[in-house]
């Protein structure tokens, strides 16, 4: 894999609803480099301001598909941290 | 002027099964239009589920509700869920809309129209789709209380018991 500086600012993660309120933003740059395991990304978010409120096993989507925390996030993936859903 | 032969929904003879319409919308949901989407001459039963905003939750007076969605994913998840009962029953016709934005008491937040030659598959499908929607579609709601407080609903949180 060629060296890329596209990750120098970290991985952008989309936030919604209560998580957007907690982090005070609708997108946060998480200071980890892709590719990385989703659990590493989530752990990095826990120590960011607002991250303490994340549940033990938060829901995550990559490229608008549910993934589990063992999945690997690739450079360029659309990553979203999903609060407990409450539609209907 | 409407002609005497005006029908609220078109009756067509070529039966079309499956998911005919899925949308996450900002404007009020037109339930008659949604029903029209699943109607055709072979349909003997239409089951319509409506979710509406109620004025009381957990003993607190609610003035309104704000719905938010992860737009693209909400649409694709909703489409996948709507397709699940159709996969095992080609006679089923389904149309679903979920509304986002600020809703008032009594407003329709979600409408699910399921049509079939017979009532049981139509009713079962509507039940299945609303249950799965609540589990799997990335949509959230924030209750606005009369006292001004706003709270995002978390179905995974332990239920509060009114004092």
Describe the model:
The complex is a heterodimer of chains A (about 90) and B (about 160). The radius of gyration of chain A is 13 Å and the shape is globular. Chain A is α+β, with helices and mostly antiparallel strands and about 90 residues long. Chain A starts with 10 loop residues before the first strand and ends in a 6-residue tail after the last strand. Chain A has a five-stranded mixed sheet, with helices on one face. In chain A, strands 3-6 form a two-stranded antiparallel sheet. In chain A, about 20% of the residues lie in helices and about 25% in strands. Chain B has three helices and nine strands, in the order E-H-E-E-E-H-E-E-E-H-E-E. Chain B has helices at about 30-40, 70-90, 120-135, and strands spanning about 20-25, 45-50, 55, 60-70, 95-100, 100-105, 110-115, 140-145, 150. In chain B, the strands form two sheets. In chain B, strands 3, 4, 6, 8 and 9 form a five-stranded antiparallel sheet that branches. In chain B, strands 1-5-7-2 form a four-stranded mixed sheet, sandwiched between helices. The interface of A and B includes residues 16 and 80 of A.
Compute the CA-based radius of gyration of chain B: 18 Å
The low-pLDDT segments of chain B are 9-14
Number of helices of chain A: 2
User: Shape of chain B, please?
Assistant: elongated
Q: What is the residue-averaged pLDDT of chain A?
A: 92
Main structural class of chain B: alpha+beta
Q: Summarize the helix and strand pattern of chain B as letters.
A: EHEEEHEEEHEE
> What is the first-to-last residue Cα distance of chain B?
58 Å
SS strand fraction of chain A = 25-35%
**By helix and strand content of chain A, what is the structural category?**
alpha+beta
Number of strand segments of chain B: 9
Give the N-to-C terminal Cα separation of chain A. Answer: 44 Å
Q: Could you give a short account of the major beta sheet of chain A?
A: 5 strands, mixed
């Amino acid at each position: 894999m060629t060296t890329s500086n596209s990750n120098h600012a970290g991985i952008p993660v989309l936030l919604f609803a209560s998580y957007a309120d907690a982090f005070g933003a609708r997108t946060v740059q998480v200071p980890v480099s892709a590719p990385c395991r989703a659990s590493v990304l989530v752990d990095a978010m826990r120590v960011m301001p607002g991250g303490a409120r994340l549940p033990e096993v938060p829901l995550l989507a990559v490229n608008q598909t549910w993934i589990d925390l063992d999945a690997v996030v690739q450079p360029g993936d659309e990553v979203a941290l999903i609060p407990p859903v409450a539609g209907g | 002027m409407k002609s005497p032969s005006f029908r609220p929904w078109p009756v067509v003879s070529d039966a079309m099964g499956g998911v005919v319409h899925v949308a996450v919308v900002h404007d009020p949901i037109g339930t008659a239009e949604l029903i029209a989407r699943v109607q055709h001459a072979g349909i003997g039963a239409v089951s319509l589920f409506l979710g509406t905003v109620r004025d009381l939750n957990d003993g607190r007076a609610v003035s309104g509700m704000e719905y938010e969605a992860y737009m693209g994913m909400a649409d694709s998840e909703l489409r996948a869920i709507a397709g699940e009962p159709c996969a095992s029953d080609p006679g089923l016709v389904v149309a679903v809309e979920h509304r986002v934005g600020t809703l008032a008491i009594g407003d329709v937040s979600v409408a699910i129209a399921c049509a079939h030659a017979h009532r049981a598959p139509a009713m079962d499908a509507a039940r299945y789709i609303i249950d799965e929607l609540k589990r799997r579609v990335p949509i959230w709601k924030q209750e606005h209380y009369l006292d001004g407080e706003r709270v995002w609903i978390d179905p995974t949180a332990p239920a509060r018991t009114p004092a």
